[in-house]
């Protein structure tokens, strides 16, 4: 068994395609895909793995891996049960490993495994994802080679003994034997040197002139292997600014690893890693040089740095959105209270309605921040594309007066089922991209329509035939060439100067459209502007006018405990609840809340809790509330939105959630829903 330590721990949930698609791709994989729980029991084994080991899912799911496909010990006596236990305790030490496994038939097989661990919030392993590939043939071949080597060694030794006894009489045979031994030694030496870097370029050179190269080096040099023999390859392959430094380091160091800029005959430059050590070929001293292409490693390093930067930005965005939503909640609450204190005919009602509209727009902006920070969870609703365009452009046009925006909205009112915030983000990203393409001003044309895609349509991608709503954004900017068009949806690709763009706008738009089962077509030529057509599956349901909800008035004055550490929101929240007919007691922390519950002596009928309370944290706060008032409905609220991990974890122990900011009607409905919800018979979260 061979293990390789992991460079990082993962606590990120699996992501990518929708669960159904992900299940099919795992089932169809030509590799073994095995999932284990934190106790080493099998959660799932894909179809390939079931066929490979001979265990159907019904016979292995739920059983310990040790004793099924992993024996207690392998044929060398290695304790595999202890290895599995160590894997569950220290997954970072077993990122990659090779070990013996057992089929149901009892046959031994060898598998190379890649393992990834998932942790809960306490750092305990909850699941292992193991992907394996069969290397039994390779291990068998290695055993055959070892047997042949032992047999060859024994044969040579026997021949040596016989030749020594006949030395005086068989001088000619001795010379032939020595020649054979020399040839065998050269073969072994060459095999050893080549196998040290089978995927790397290998060069044998004497005084800089190549005397042997492998196929990997020929591929790196973009030159046939035969043509490289006799060339001074380093002068052709190493950039001029590095060649002298390389020669000095090669002369002074054996096995020293250093980076160079490599060149190819086509003029391509790329980073490479070079190492050199002394060797021998055909009895002739030489230098051996290994050259590794590290472009992918460098790219991964850059992406990791960018990812860490974006993660930090996401954390900042989440905090900003939370504080922003708390401020909006205070504004919205006061607006609701004032509107209900004024008559319907008051001239101030119109201004208050306008303020409320601006608050909701601000809430959508903070929703975009939260969506960005948390990976874009979706809340599906019926969307009128015409209304979305009008609403989005209303705030956009004021900020870009040098741009003329024209719209042509279909009378068919194209509708889709989607996440309103994300689709609005797609439109705004496309419009912003168009603005950046016209730095001195220009015209943007936005159009909505419906169309039907058929299987016979000539497109660069596979489509699902059907009726689609189309959102088109066309500009009069500088346009793009074909090479740029191919890359515009790649993450971090940007044509802007360094520091002036992240390259995420169009990439996020593409991801959102793809997650909505849609497509984006791009048409552009240099100097002729660009047009983006977003195609999204049409909704089946028709749009209905939204009735104006009315607050629910309480028939009896029930008592509600409102817990929030923000004094301003606590005041406006209390007044909103009083306006709805409730009696209200308030608390700014958990200690005060426990005192309020104790003094209320059972009169509190509902608790409203802000999740972002200072102190023990949301989970401990809910636990303490459940211990003191296990039957009282608990309604959570937060400026972080409903898509956070903490909300999802706590919802099974609460009767509802209402995101800040909220209207009076939304608060009333949320309380009524929580009061009517079935009692929770679960224990509080650990």
From TrEMBL:
Gene3D superfamilies: 1.10.287.130, 3.40.50.2300, Histidine kinase-like ATPase, C-terminal domain, PAS domain. It catalyses: ATP + protein L-histidine = ADP + protein N-phospho-L-histidine. SMART domains: HATPase_c, HisKA, PAC, PAS, REC. Residues 149-190 form a coiled coil. Residues 559-675 form the Response regulatory domain. It comes from the Bacteria. Residues 26-76, 202-250 form the PAS domain. InterPro entries: CheY-like_superfamily, HATPase_C_sf, HATPase_dom, His_kinase_dom, HisK_dim/P_dom, HisK_dim/P_sf, PAC, PAS. Keywords: ATP-binding, Coiled coil, Kinase, Nucleotide-binding, Phosphoprotein, Transferase, Two-component regulatory system. It holds the Pfam family PAS_9. Residues 319-540 form the Histidine kinase domain. One of its GO terms (biological process) is regulation of DNA-templated transcription. Its EC number is 2.7.13.3. Residues 94-147 form the PAC domain. Residues 1-15 have a biased composition (Low complexity). Residues 1-26 are annotated as: Disordered. One of its GO terms (molecular function) is ATP binding. The modification 4-aspartylphosphate is found at residue 610. It is an enzyme of class 2 (transferase). This is histidine kinase. It comes from Desulfosarcina ovata subsp. sediminis. The lineage of its organism: Bacteria, Pseudomonadati, Thermodesulfobacteriota, Desulfobacteria, Desulfobacterales.
């Amino acid at each position: 068994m061979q293990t390789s330590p992991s460079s990082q721990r993962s606590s990120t949930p699996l992501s990518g395609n929708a669960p159904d698609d992900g299940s099919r791709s795992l089932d169809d994989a030509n590799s073994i895909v095995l999932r284990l729980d934190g106790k080493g029991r099998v959660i799932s084994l894909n179809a390939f793995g079931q066929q490979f080991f001979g265990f159907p899912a019904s016979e292995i799911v739920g059983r310990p891996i040790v004793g099924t496909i992993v024996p207690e010990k392998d044929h060398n006596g290695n304790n595999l049960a202890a290895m599995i236990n160590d894997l569950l305790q220290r997954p970072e030490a077993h990122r990659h490993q090779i070990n013996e496994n057992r089929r149901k038939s009892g046959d031994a097989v060898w598998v190379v495994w890649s393992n990834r661990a998932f942790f809960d919030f306490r750092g305990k392993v909850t699941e292992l994802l193991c992907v394996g590939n069969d290397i039994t043939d390779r291990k068998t071949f290695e055993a055959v080679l070892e047997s042949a080597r032992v047999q060859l060694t024994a044969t040579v030794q026997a021949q040596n003994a016989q030749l020594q006894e006949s030395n005086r009489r068989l001088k000619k045979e001795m010379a032939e034997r020595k020649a054979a031994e020399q040839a065998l030694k050269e073969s072994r030496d060459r095999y050893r040197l080549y196998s040290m870097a089978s995927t790397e370029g290998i060069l044998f050179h004497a005084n800089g002139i190549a005397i042997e190269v492998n196929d990997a080096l020929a591929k790196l040099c973009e030159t046939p292997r035969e043509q490289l023999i006799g060339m001074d390859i380093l002068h052709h392959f190493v950039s001029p600014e590095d060649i002298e430094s390389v020669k000095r380091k090669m002369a002074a160091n054996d096995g020293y690893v250093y980076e160079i800029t490599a060149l190819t005959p086509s003029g391509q430059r790329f980073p490479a890693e070079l190492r050199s050590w002394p060797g021998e070929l055909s009895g002739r001293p030489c230098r051996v040089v290994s050259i590794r292409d590290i472009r992918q490693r460098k790219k991964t390093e850059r992406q990791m740095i960018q990812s860490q930067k974006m993660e930090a930005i996401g954390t900042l965005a989440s905090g900003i959105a939370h504080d922003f939503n708390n401020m909006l909640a205070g504004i919205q609450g006061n607006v609701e209270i004032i509107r209900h204190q004024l008559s319907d005919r008051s001239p101030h009602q119109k201004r208050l309605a306008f303020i409320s509209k601006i608050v909701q727009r601000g809430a959508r902006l903070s929703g975009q921040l939260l969506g960005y920070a948390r990976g874009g969870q979706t809340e599906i609703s019926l969307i009128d594309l015409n209304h979305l365009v009008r609403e989005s452009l209303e705030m956009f046009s004021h900020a870009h007066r040098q741009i003329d925006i024209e719209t042509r909205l279909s009378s068919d009112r194209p509708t889709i089922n989607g996440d309103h915030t994300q689709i609005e983000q797609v439109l705004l990203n496309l419009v912003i991209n168009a603005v950046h393409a016209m730095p001195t001003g220009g015209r943007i044309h936005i159009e909505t329509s419906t169309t039907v895609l058929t299987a016979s349509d000539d497109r660069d991608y596979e489509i699902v035939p059907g009726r689609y709503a189309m959102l088109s954004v066309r500009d009069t900017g500088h346009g793009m060439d074909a090479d740029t068009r191919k890359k515009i949806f790649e993450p971090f690709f940007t044509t802007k100067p360094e520091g002036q763009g992240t390259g995420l706008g169009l990439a996020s738009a593409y991801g959102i459209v793809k997650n909505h089962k849609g497509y984006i077509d791009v048409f552009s030529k240099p100097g002729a502007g660009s047009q983006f057509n977003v195609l999204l599956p049409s909704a089946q349901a028709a749009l209905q006018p939204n009735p104006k909800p009315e607050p629910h008035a309480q028939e009896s004055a029930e008592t509600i405990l409102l817990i929030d550490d923000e004094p301003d929101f606590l005041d406006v929240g209390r007044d909103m609840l009083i306006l709805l007919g409730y009696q209200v007691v308030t608390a700014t922390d958990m200690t005060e809340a426990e005192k309020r519950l104790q003094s209320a002596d059972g009169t509190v009928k509902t608790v409203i809790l802000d999740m972002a309370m200072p102190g023990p944290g949301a989970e401990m706060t809910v636990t303490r509330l459940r211990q003191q008032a296990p039957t009282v409905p608990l309604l959570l609220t937060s400026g972080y939105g409903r898509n956070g991990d903490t909300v999802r974890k706590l919802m099974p122990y609460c009767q509802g959630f209402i995101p800040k900011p909220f209207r009076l009607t939304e608060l009333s409905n949320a309380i009524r829903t929580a009061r009517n919800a079935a009692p929770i018979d679960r224990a509080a979260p650990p």
